[in-house]
Amino acid sequence: MAADLDMVNLLVLAGATLAIPILSFVASFILWPSALIKIYYWYWRRTLGLQVRYADCGGYRFCYSYRGKPGFRPSILMLHGFSAHKDTWLTMVKYLPKHLHILCVDMPGHEGTTRTNSEDYSIQGQVKRIHQFVENVRLNRKPFHLVGTSMGGNVAGVYAASFPSEICSITLICPAGIRYPCETKFDNHLQDLEHSHYTLSIPLIPSTPEEMEDMLRLCSHVRFKIPQQILQGLVDVRLPHNDFYQEVFMEILGENSRYALQDNLQLITAPLQVIWGKQDQVVDVSGAVVVAEALPGCRVDLLENCGHSVVMERPRRTAKLIMEFIISLGTTSGTIKNLDSF
Predict the structure, then answer these.
(1) Smaller CB count within 10 Å for the chain: N or C?
(2) Does the active-site annotation cover 150?
(3) Dihedrals φ, ψ of 104, to 5°?
(4) Of these residues, 65, 122, 150, 309, which one is catalytic?
(5) What's the CA gap between 297 and 131, in Å, rounded?
(6) d(CA 34, CA 238)
(7) In this structure, are residues 222 and 214 in contact, taking their beta carbons and an 8 Å threshold?
(8) What is the pLDDT of residues 171-208, one digit of tens each?
(9) Catalytic residue of the set 263, 280, 284, 301
(10) Class of the CATH domain delimited by 33-339
């Protein structure tokens, strides 16, 4: 009987011990979902071997994560899209070889990188700041591979045109900055915004869980089932920055930035790869034709059943395509491929 009581006491004690972290998790999920999201990113950076560092450039600070050291293959610098951050790339980094030297930087004003004035948020302004970062971390000691998605693709293309000796190759993923032959659902939103003199809400700057869900539907062809609490957490993380995002949004839509990539395409001399989701509702896949016509030697990979958030929807496939491109340089000519799911 005494042994049975001891066992009961042990089970009660064990249950109570386990209940504390479980209840803490549940409470965090309900009360502080944004904290869980930050913990999630921290956990995946740690799991993937990424370290966060800061680069100080005369009072301007860049925040970036990195893994590996420069080696035989070129280093890879990744530029995220509008209102995102360096952790955007985590899902894809998971599928890249661990020996590669990879850097994911927060774009000007985003996440941990300094916010200054609107000049830094134009495409040319961002190019200058990213070049400042590259020089500070001495990434340009030898040519590196540059990857950019959406707004980051616009910046990456203009960077390659502005500093050709620093780039050995470049991958643009659903890049902004092109006059697209076909319109998208987002283009219709833009027209409504312009007619309202920007008094309507901007679809890429959500302020409620419902608007967040709408944005995810706009940016992704794959339908992810996201709990309401997580949607709330995503909104909570973004809300303090929405005024800044609006400032950036207006700047990259400005006359000097909106078609910056197309205006600089002819100046790109490095081997170029374009990856695009065929169901992109933000920037139309017809932009791939514009790039291919301007740079006939480029490689274009079109992904079936994929929207604008290529890195999130097809991380494994994207990583594989980028590595194939880097490895094949100098051995094969560029081709246009229609790729099924990976």
Answers:
(1) N
(2) yes
(3) -120, 110
(4) 150
(5) 26
(6) 9
(7) no
(8) 999 999 999 999 999 999 999 988 888 788 899 999 99
(9) 280
(10) alpha beta
Whether 220 is catalytic: no
The order of strands in the sheet holding 167-173 is 51-57, 60-67, 102-105, 76-79, 144-149, 167-173, 272-277, 299-303, 336-339
113: which 2 tokens?
Answer: 């990188």
**25 pLDDT higher than 70:** no
Q: What does the block give as tokens for 308?
A: 């604008």
Per-residue pLDDT reduced to its tens digit, 91-107: 999 999 999 999 999 99
- Under 8 Å between Cβ of 114 and 244: no
Q: What is the dihedral of CA 272, 270, 295, 86, to 10 degrees?
A: 40
Could you tell me which residues come within 8 angstroms of residue 214 by beta carbon, excluding any fewer than 6 positions away? 203, 206
Q: What is the model's pTM?
A: 0.88
Query: DSSP class of residue 281?
Result: S
Least confident of 7-11, 200-204, 217-221, 266-270: 7-11
pLDDT tens, position by position, 297-319? 999 999 999 999 999 999 999 99
Respond yes or no: is residue 120 known to be catalytic: no
Of the residues 85, 101, 145, 308, only one is catalytic, namely: 308
